[in-house]
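Marked as duplicate of an earlier ticket. Keeping the data here for the record.
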Amino acid sequence: MIGNTFQFAWEVSLIEWCQNSLPSFFVNGLKYVSYLGDAVISVAIVCIFYLWYDKKLGRKILFSTITSMMFATEIKNIFKRRRPYFDNENIECLKVVDKDFDMFDVKKQGFSFPSLHSSNTVSIFGNIYNYYCKKPLLILAIAISLIVGISRFVLGCHYPTDVLVGWAIGITFVLLFSQAEKKLSDKQIYICFIVLGLIGCFYCESADFFQSFGIGLNFILCEIIDKKYINFKNTRNPVKGILRLVFGLGVFVLVLESLKLPFSKEFLEGDSIVSNLYLAFRYGLSTLVGVGLTPFVYKYNIFKLKD
């Protein structure tokens, strides 16, 4: 048996009660709400701020979220807690983590503790509140974090304690990065991130870890390139902002998918260290080109749009 089973009786009872007692329309709605914590949505939100609206806030969100993701995944690979539906026949998985693989494939569906969706939402929306310090944003951050976290155990993907620890990790890294920006230089922050990532390389097997490490490592290069060669400015022109967003994300996806072409599906989906390192390389290079190099185009303003 892959992974470890440890659970509190109240957690199993709570999940079973939710799945059997809550209205079906509410549970179905949670399937869509849960997407707010997905890595794809996280990348899109980072790009909206970094490439379009507020580069400084985008940087805070990315570093805080990627670092908390990496740390949470390192914890996952230590505890290796199996998801609740693996070991409790009365708990149904209502939203598979990775629909391309069998829902009972432990390695592909990932371990349960802690919840990355929960840490992601707290980190993203917590940083937005922490940056602007406006009460409506605090309410929004709490509401989204709560509903996404609740959705993860109602859908059978996590135990409630996975969610609680995910929230704690998200809050911790919002506060840690806020203090780090005040007390550490950029170089020191980069070194801390790299050291944390290298530790995980020795024992982590999860794709989430290598994706986040690859993205974070290459975002450091994006920062260096921007400060030395580009220094692009944000824009308040919505058309210009949307063009930047579509262009950046489009290039990101294009590079990510193109790097699949030279290799077989078996290699790309494999669990070997070489496959995982190539995964980190794919996501890293896609970040470097889509986020770090596309701003070179901005200074030419080919559509002649005002900021």
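See parent ticket for discussion. The radius of gyration is 20 Å.
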